[in-house]
Amino acid sequence: MLLLNIYLSHLNVTTVGQNARLQDNQLADRSCDIIGEAPWQGTEGVNYDAVEDCWAITTPHDDSIDKRKTCGIGPNLYIWDKGNTIVFWEDFTYMGSSELDIDDIILRGGDYKYTYICDYDNSDYGYDKELGKWFAWATFEMEDSEVEWLRNLLSADTVIMRFEGTDYSKFDYTWTGQDRQAITDIIDLYNLLKAVTPEVREKALRN
């Protein structure tokens, strides 16, 4: 379980509609203490940029993709502007034995199907000599409605991630339990950080 799962069970965060909220306003103050107790600083996946005064939060699962030499999905968060701005990014990575100039990414889970259209400014591909693999990647800034896509997909027993190339080549990858856990951890963290005030976010990150 990702260290960034900042003890959500202790915060009693509940879901109302599609958004997370704190059950009691007083928990906002308590959340600052609990977030601050989580072992964030100095751990893998949390990076502070002193020049830009911002934080990038990834998962160890995503950070290890080169070691695993597999396809994968990498959710991550960026927080800046004194905790006022929090953005959910999604990275998609293809890694295989065949060249693939990525064009579209299609996610299918049960009755849910979502398509991400890649472009020259958010994707690339090539061959990594050290890994001995062809790779392709694409990254997207997720709106709240698109974060909901991930929640919907997680409800399915199986999620297939299809990489389609500009030459119509295809490669299918099925989410693993580790993929699902990484996505769940970042969604939970995103919900919590959005449920508290910017001051709470900044204080927790700086502790």
Properties at a glance:
207 residues, alpha+beta, 6-stranded antiparallel beta sheet, 4-stranded antiparallel beta sheet, 12 strands, globular, disordered N terminus
Overall description:
There is one protein chain. The protein is α+β, with helices and mostly antiparallel strands. 30% of the residues lie in helices and 38% in strands. The protein is built from 7 helices and 12 strands. Helix 2 packs parallel to helix 7 and helix 5 runs antiparallel to helix 6. The radius of gyration is 18 Å and the shape is globular. The protein starts with 7 loop residues before the first helix and ends with a helix. The N terminus is likely disordered.
How many E strands?
12
- Helicity level, as a percent range? 25-40%
Q: Report the sheet with the most strands, covering strand number, pairing sense and barrel closure.
A: 6 strands, antiparallel
Please count the helical segments. 7
Structural class: alpha+beta
Order of helices and strands: HEEHEEHHEEEEEEHEEHH
From the N-terminal CA to the C-terminal CA, the straight-line distance is 21 Å
Uncertain spans: 1-44
* Strand line-up in the sheet with most strands: 3-4-5-6-10-9
Strand content: 35-45%
Report mean pLDDT, rounded to a whole number: 81
User: Could you tell me the radius of gyration in angstroms?
Assistant: 18 Å
Categorize the overall geometry. globular
